[in-house]
Design brief:
The protein is α/β, with parallel strands linked by helices. The protein has 7 helices and 12 strands.
């Protein structure tokens, strides 16, 4: 059985510490005890470590050895328009499992006004969802989560492949995209109800390329997951993994 993986702020002099809510979760919920061994990550490297102290306010790890680094996370950014939080949070969880590097919530014309106002208050909850999903799937680094931005700002984000996920299915299939290992990808995902025509025009004028996920009209969260899974496989094909 694989050892649990935890993320720590830093490893210094072969020691690491978790405090606050993270420590309480380990001690009260997971029943972590002194002497147990776990894998820890400082978002750069992976280590085998032993718990040397386990209190409600602090869990201390002593590094036993550095482990081989896992395969690097592909440089994939998901720019996801805000939609119903229950479905948006499901997408966050799956995006972490599918190795997204960065998530940028986008305020689109058809995003409900209440979602725009409530989103900043959800950032801590969303970061916890990403943390738990990342630990569960044992990725070495955590995905970044940006604050919500307007579409015009989102369109300025740079990547070697900037893809407009087009529910009108006017572009070529995403699965036909050719990627090399050193490329970066940005996926622009629309809200429930799709992009407004002016938004689509702005994206095309800014150089985003429309790509389709196939003949079916997908829910926003399904489209996001399908796009990430497709891009992940395209990177895997290139690296031969």
């Amino acid at each position: 059985m694989a050892r649990r993986l935890f993320y720590v702020p830093e490893v210094r002099r072969d020691e690491a510490e978790l405090t606050g809510d993270a420590a309480q979760h380990l001690v009260r919920v997971l029943r972590v005890e002194e002497g147990q061994q776990f894998e820890i990550s400082d978002n750069r490297h992976l280590y085998l470590a032993t718990v040397t102290a386990a209190r409600k306010s602090s869990v201390v790890f002593k590094v036993t050895k550095r482990l081989p680094d896992l395969a690097p996370v592909p440089d994939v950014t998901l720019l996801a328009s805000l939609f119903k939080f229950e479905h948006f949070e499901w997408l966050l969880e799956k995006a972490a499992e599918l190795n997204v590097a960065r998530i940028v919530p986008v305020i689109a014309e058809r995003s409900e006004r209440g979602l725009e106002q409530a989103a900043p208050k959800r950032k801590e909850r969303w970061e916890r969802i990403l943390l738990e999903a990342s630990q569960q799937c044992r990725r070495m680094t955590l995905p970044l989560l940006d604050a919500p931005v307007k579409l015009l700002e989102a369109l300025q984000i740079q990547a070697s492949q900037r893809i407009l996920l087009d529910e009108l299915r006017q572009g070529p299939l995403l699965v036909g995209l050719t990627l090399s290992q050193d490329e970066s990808v940005a996926l622009l995902l629309g809200p429930e109800g799709g992009w407004a025509e002016r938004e689509r025009e702005l994206a095309l004028e800014a150089g985003w390329m429309p790509r389709s996920l196939g003949p079916n009209v997908l829910r926003a969260e399904t489209a996001g997951m399908a796009a990430l899974a497709t891009v992940s496989q395209l990177f895997t094909v290139d690296t031969g993994v």
